[in-house]
Amino acid sequence: MAGIVDLLPKEYGYIILTLVAYYFVNFYMQIQVGKARKKYKVFYPKLYATEADTKDYQIFNCIQRGHQNSLENVGIFFVLMVVGGLKHPVICAGLGLGYTVARFFYFTGYSSGDPKGRLPIGYVICFKLRFLYSTELGSETV
Q1: What does the alpha-carbon distance between residue 98 and residue 10 come to, in Å, rounded to a whole number?
Q2: What is the pLDDT of residues 66-93, one digit of tens each?
Q3: Which DSSP state fits 52?
Q4: What is the pLDDT of residues 122-142, one digit of tens each?
Q5: What gap in Å lies between CA 79 and CA 40, rounded to an integer?
Q6: Which residues fall within 8 angstroms of residue 83, CB to CB, at 6 or more apart?
Q7: How far apart are CA 60 and CA 113, in angstroms?
Q8: Best label site of 12, 48, 64, 88, fewest CB within 10 Å?
Q9: Alpha-carbon distance 53 to 94, whole Å?
Q10: Rg of the chain over CA atoms, in angstroms?
């Protein structure tokens, strides 16, 4: 009787490495939010700052929102990677790595304090997720 690991494609390790890379990007974002909380004096349990909290509330909110947006999408990203990687591990790993890099630049653009800074890379993120959906569904367009 074969174990679960024996049933995975031999390239499935790329999926795991991609998910670990995403973890480190997310950890970087967590650190940036923590630094911003100290710098702008926005303490828990407040999720977002108001003008009454700090004059730089917009910058803090952009940093927080960039990370929060990433957390809102992490569940579907992980599911698509894990399940899609069963059939197309190399394609999913490549798209997932591209998505991870795009997430980093999305966060960096958003953290500038101008929400429009996220838009150029936001289109790349949508593109990558669309193709991850395709691999998940077994589409022949990939």
Answers
A1: 21
A2: 999 999 989 999 998 999 899 999 988 9
A3: T
A4: 666 666 666 666 665 554 544
A5: 35
A6: 136
A7: 7
A8: 48
A9: 42
A10: 18
Closest CA to 129 of 99, 107, 101: 99
Position 17, amino acid:
L
What residues contact 14, with CB distance under 8 A and at least 6 apart? 85, 89, 90, 93
Structure tokens at 104: 């980093």
Amino acid at 81: M
Burial degree of 98 (CB within 10 A; 0-12, 13-18, 19+): middle
| 77 vs 125: CA distance, rounded Å | 11
Tokens 């838009």 correspond to what residue? 119
- Please tell me the pTM assigned to this model: 0.82
